[in-house]
Amino acid sequence: MTQGLDWGNVPSWASAFVSLLALCSAVFAATQAWRALKIQQAGDRRAEAELRKRLDEEQRAQAAKVSAWVSMVRDSTTDTAIANVRNASELPVYDLTAQICLDGRMVETLDAGVLPPNSEPLRRPLTSSGRSVDRWGVTLTFRDSAGLSWHRGQDGALTKVNPVKP
Questions:
Q1: Which of 25, 40, 131, 162 lies at a C-alpha separation of 20 to 30 Å from 91?
Q2: 144 lies in which domain range?
């Protein structure tokens, strides 16, 4: 008696083959969907970073137009140091304080309160005079028209100050 292997019938084999093909297709589709999700998430992160950058630039727009420096006015007998504070924006700034430093040490404070927009700087003579301009520095703190607080260091760097929570 010859005994042959029973390989089943053709419909069972066809069903098994189609099921395996469906499983492979599902794995392939899941892999492609995962890749598409990762690409979409990367695009969303880039768009979010761009939006944050644009919002930061919009917030800084007014503050970037507020500046201060010290200049010297020379007449025939003396040199007078002048503090210059300028708001070149279209809106006023509030609670403005300028700390005038000589050789890194604060020597005077100028509290302007509200500084309206102006093409010309607010000019105040300083009590300490007769020094080279490069030895002077000015630090500003102020609040813009949107209520955001800012600090401009002696190096000109502008940073947003987080308000103190009461």
A1: 162
A2: 64-161
Helix H or strand E segment including 66: strand 66-74
124 and 152 housed in the same domain:
yes
Instruction: Answer whether 93's CB lies under 8 Å from 141's CB.
Output: no
For residue 56, the model assigns a pLDDT of 80
Amino acid 74: pLDDT = 79
Each residue's pLDDT tens digit, 107-122? 889 888 899 998 899 8
Residues 50 and 129 in one domain: no
Instruction: Tell me which residue has tokens 């509200």.
Output: 114
Are 127 and 157 in the same domain? Answer: yes
pTM of this prediction? 0.65
What sign does the CA torsion over 66, 55, 157, 109 have?
A: positive
Compute φ and ψ for 93, nearest 5 degrees: -115, 155
pLDDT value at 1 more than 80: no
Count of the separate structural domains present in the chain: 2
pLDDT at 64 over 80: yes
Does 151 lie in the same domain as 130? yes
